[in-house]
Design goal:
Helix content: 10-25%
Mean pLDDT: 89
Number of helices: 2
Largest sheet: 3 strands, antiparallel
Strand content: 35-45%
Order of helices and strands: HEEHE
Structural class: alpha+beta
Length: 62
């Protein structure tokens, strides 16, 4: 609790985009970050840190 009171946690603002699952233009809320080990990220061809977003309509995580 003290950490939350002394450090302001910020995240990206919500974004409007078309959801690939429900095919609706909707708001996406920031859900956090997924951290991958460097060797896994390199093998998959992705960044080691991926931002996750939730669709407001169908709740898909992208």
């Amino acid at each position: 609790m003290l950490l939350a009171m002394t450090h302001k946690l910020t995240h990206p603002p919500d974004r409007l985009a078309r959801c690939p699952t429900c095919d609706t233009r909707t708001r996406f809320q920031y859900a956090g970050e997924q951290h991958w080990p460097a060797r896994v990220a390199q093998a998959a061809g992705i960044e080691p840190v991926t931002r996750l977003w939730h669709c407001d309509r169908c709740h898909t995580t992208v």
